[in-house]
Amino acid sequence: MANTAYVDLHVLHNGHCLTVNCVAFSSDGQYLASGSDDRCLLIWNVKDGALLYRLHFKSAVDSVIWHPVHPETVVVGCEDGSIHQMRGFSIDGHEKFDVRLGVKGPVHFLQYNADVSCLAAAVGPEVHVTKEQDKDTYTGGLKLASPPPLAAAASTSRDDVEQRDTRLRVTGIHFSRKGRVIIASYVAHGIIAYDLVKREQLWHIAPTEDAPMIASSALSPDCKQLMAYHLQKGLRCYAVATYFAKPSRCKYEFDEPQTSRLSLQMSFLHGGKAVVCGTTTGKVCIWDIETGELYQKLPHDSESADTAQQAHQTGAFSYIATGSSGTGQHTYIKIWRARNSKLRLGTVSCVVG
After folding, report:
1. CB 173, CB 127: distance < 8 Å
2. How distant is the alpha carbon of residue 163 from its chain centre?
3. For residue 303, which of 261, 282, 286, 309 is within the disulfide window of CB 3.0 to 4.6 Å?
4. Is the pLDDT confidence value at 100 over 90?
5. Region 274-281: what's the mean pLDDT?
6. How many structural domains compose the chain?
7. How many other C-beta atoms can be found within 10 angstroms of the C-beta atom of residue 178?
8. Is 118 inside a domain boundary?
9. How many angstroms separate the CA atoms of 324 and 333, rounded?
């Protein structure tokens, strides 16, 4: 794959004024939603980079997804624990419906599965699942069992013990097997798969000494690979199935040290043949899944960390969007675009139908 496969499409300034926490493409690739510590959700036009709508909330916007069933509908999670489903955006306003889980805490992640019409939310240290019985109406709820207690630290190094984050914190949630299974990653408690029907744990990947903490995770489109960012140690891929999971031999490493303990978001690209991840130094890295080769780095205009990132494929194009940390003019969103017909990973052509 040529280093110039992805090219700059837009740099979106004059939108957010504080750190961007989340970005999400609509299913058709026409719109990008972004949420920030500035308590705003913005809707952008991907084609021309125009800012279409600005929505204000009572607290920071920590997570956003586009509803996979209802057109032009977003689900937003906020720092104060509120979750809202919104649509009908116009100059006169929009429709807003509250999703009530009966718990409070920052809503770090949201996922929706259309096969079972269920919304999963990581609220504080817990994962909750609720069902959309009718349009915009959610009823009932299920709280996933907490992971098992941490084992004693394998390392007795004082520095390692001081740096180890032992809090129960969710770093990613993903539906699998047509909504029957949820895979949740935790910062210090590993990765766990839950059967939502039987309400039981299927498997658990415990943290190891060389990969003790997980800052974020991503599930491939075919639900057979889970990528985890192990804090400051690079990415590792896990083969996942219904009743087991195991690490692959291939590791995905940054070509320069990461300078902080920030969570870096990831996405699979090109039908699961590549993975993209932000960095703490402002660059965006893309790896070949099969070989682990770092074959493209996309620079930001500054060295602020990439705190939000998502990739999307639609028609003839693939897109990557990232949001930066910072304040004022140093806060922005950048979008890259590539033609699928020109992308090649090794000898495999990445043409999306």
Report:
1. yes
2. 24
3. 282
4. yes
5. 87
6. 1
7. 11
8. yes
9. 6
Instruction: Specify the amino acid at residue 35.
Output: G
CA distance 145 to 77: 21
State how far the Cα of 29 lies from the Cα of 146, in Å rounded to an integer.
36
Q: Which helix (H) or strand (E) holds 131?
A: strand 126-134
Give residue 124's Cα distance to chain centre: 16
Residue type, 176: S
Read off the pTM: 0.89
85 in a structural domain = yes
In a domain, 215, yes or no: no
Indicate if the alpha-carbon torsion angle 171, 263, 226, 266 is positive or negative: positive
Dihedral (Cα; 201, 205, 207, 211), 10-degree rounding: -150
**Exposure of 223 in the CB half-sphere (CA atoms within 13 A):** 16
The boundaries of the domain holding residue 110 are 18-143
The DSSP secondary structure of 279-334, one letter per residue, reads: -TTSEEEEEETTT--EEEEEE-SS---EEEEEEEEETTEEEEEEEE--SGGG--EE
C-alpha distances out from residue 68 to 71, 213, 257, 296, 319, Å: 7, 31, 37, 30, 18
